[in-house]
Amino acid sequence: MSIRDEPRRGSVSMDPIRVLHVDADSAWTAAVADCLERAAAPIETLSATSASDALERLEHADVDCLVSEYDLPDMDGLALFDAVRAAHDSLPFVLCPGAGSEAVASEAIGAGVTDYVPKSEGAATLRDRLVAAVDTIRARSRRKRQLRAVETAREGISLLDDEGRFVYVNQAYADLYGYEPSTLIGAHWERLYPDEDVATVREEIIPTVMAEGDWFGETTGLRADGTTFVEAHSLSTTDNGDLICTVRDVTDREERKRELERYETIIDALGDPVYTVDSEGRYAFVNDAYAAMTGYEKDEIVGRHISFLLDEPSVERGEDCVRSLLSDDTDARQRTYEITVETSDGERIRCEDNVSLLPLADGRYRGVAGVVRDITERKARERELERYETILEAIPDEVYSLDAAGVITDIIPPINDDVSTTGHRPEELVGEHVSVIMDQDDIDTAESEIEALLGNDDREHASFEMETVTKDGERHPNENHIAALPPDEDGCFRGTVGVLRNIADRKARERELKAQNERLDRFAGIVSHDLRNPLNVAQGHLERVRESGDCDDDDLEAIAWAHDRMAALIETLLTIARERDPDPDTEPVDLAALVTDCWRHVETDDAAVAIETDAVVRADRARLTQLLENLISNAVEHGSTDDARARRDADPDSAAITLTVGDLDEAAADGFFVADDGSGIPAAERDRIFESGYSSDGTGLGLAIVDRIADAHGWTVTATEGADGGARFELTGVDLVDRSRPGDEE
């Protein structure tokens, strides 16, 4: 016969039942929830539409029972059952298929589901079955707790059948008599009593128990080795006539009494206040420290209700704590809660009360013992900490802390953000090494800064620039302000705290400033380069006028053109400088006419030009003029060869170099070329000639300007070898205008 602890048939626990209903059918889910609300037991229904949703809900919510459809969107009900059992082995699981079958039922029962209730049996049947399932599981849980309490009890506990034979003994009971529990099972109780006491037990004690239901007193126990001891002995009957026996060795009661006196002496000597309160909430004992804390004498406190010293909220919290300890739903023997003690002079002291139940007397509550600790200073520190935490949460930057190994221990996103600046939620980063968001080079820099901090007592913090790597793999520049945490009690390094400030905008401004300075440098170079040609023209004609003393109209016209050209160049270059790289202001331009005009106003010495194009291009006239002038000047300046100079010496009428402007072959691309018959450009240098500053002599800006102007138009300029061995520049991607279209301007 075993200990009986089954609930009464038909009884239902009144504790609220939380049910998770997994079904994609919202109408059925609503019908079941409505039916469950009308159950005798309070039931709260949670819902999920898929297995994955249900598993996620189980991670964050306490659930007493799970009801599931078989056909779910992402897996069937039995697969969900397997997943649930892996994490919650005792959670009741009721399979409720919409289209049940014997095969599904057989498989479900074989898998071990708690119950199988097809929807066709109705919501009411489902409600009754799941309530019964939860009640059964809870009853089993209570039995386990009670049995565990019996097994671990210090008192000896046994159960005897109606014939007086042991059907159960706990370890403490068997140890008390010097037997193994298995040896006593089936033995008669007479085995544990001296012969002279058996008759008293049989004729006096057992009849009293049967008549009155219980008995308590002292008897003599007989150990396996033949020795005896005095035992405090209690007997009570169960509903079916079995006997529950509890025994405790009280032979050394006097020793325990002396031990109690020693404990009382120790308690009085403790620095912490200690008290006991009886079952009616009255002080039964206080030590000297408790009396000193309150400002009262001991005898002024003992016998008074706890409300004498505690405010009403503290009394209520204490009563809740006792109820919790007495509840069948917990095995806890101790609780901690906060109280406010009102002293004799009216001071209110915030304390932490560590309370434990006094041993029960015949199963009845006898009171509690408590150790009280003044936490006024701790509360002040907590409030201070809360203020700091509030400040940290209000900082617009990200705050983090690392332990000594570089593992993230805390991270506070910028104010009003739920995720960190790297896209991770804080809980995803805590416990991870900082390398998940930082490259090794930045980690090395940080470690160097930390070493410098630890080695210099005058430095409290350091700053350095680094990049964080986001969850999506992006990189954000940050300024990291770090400080070392206070060392531990042994003086060892505990880690760091840091504030990350995103400096992407600042870096963008720095890049913009750098680009602006580069534009100004280019602007200065272009001004000095492109203004030189018209300035040379003006100076040459002015010098000729001075030498001849004759103010020729051609000279005046050339000087006037040079000044106009310089004014146009200055305005164009200023526009480029102010507007970075403005879009060209395009119009149809007659290429041959513009080449002729440029040739006339560039110092070409004795060079010649051949124009082999009648193309009209869509371009910014001023900037195309600038491009052509630079190509002409470049050819004249760098294209002359020794052979050409020898031919000119032999024939003064021959040209030192000939420049040709013509159309590209249609097979090549839309565009034009500018070529000369000079010395050409070595193949190894053709890719570099458009770089700013590249030149065999001079400023090295002319071809860089050509490249920029072409790029601004969307053209491509390429250097290659001309048909006569000289330099050839091809401009492709040029928008050619059809002369025959009406409305086109020349």
Automatic annotation (TrEMBL):
Residues 335-387, 462-515 form the PAC domain. Its EC number is 2.7.13.3. It is an enzyme of class 2 (transferase). Coiled coil: none annotated. GO terms for cellular component: membrane. The keyword Transferase applies. One of its GO terms (biological process) is osmosensory signaling via phosphorelay pathway. It holds the Pfam family Response_reg. Residues 18-134 form the Response regulatory domain. Keywords: Kinase, Membrane, Transferase. InterPro entries: BphY/WalK/GraS-like, CheY-like_superfamily, HATPase_C_sf, HATPase_dom, His_kinase_dom, HisK_dim/P_dom, HisK_dim/P_sf, PAC. Signal peptide: none annotated. It catalyses: ATP + protein L-histidine = ADP + protein N-phospho-L-histidine. NCBIfam families: sensory_box (TIGR00229). This is histidine kinase. It comes from Natrinema pallidum.
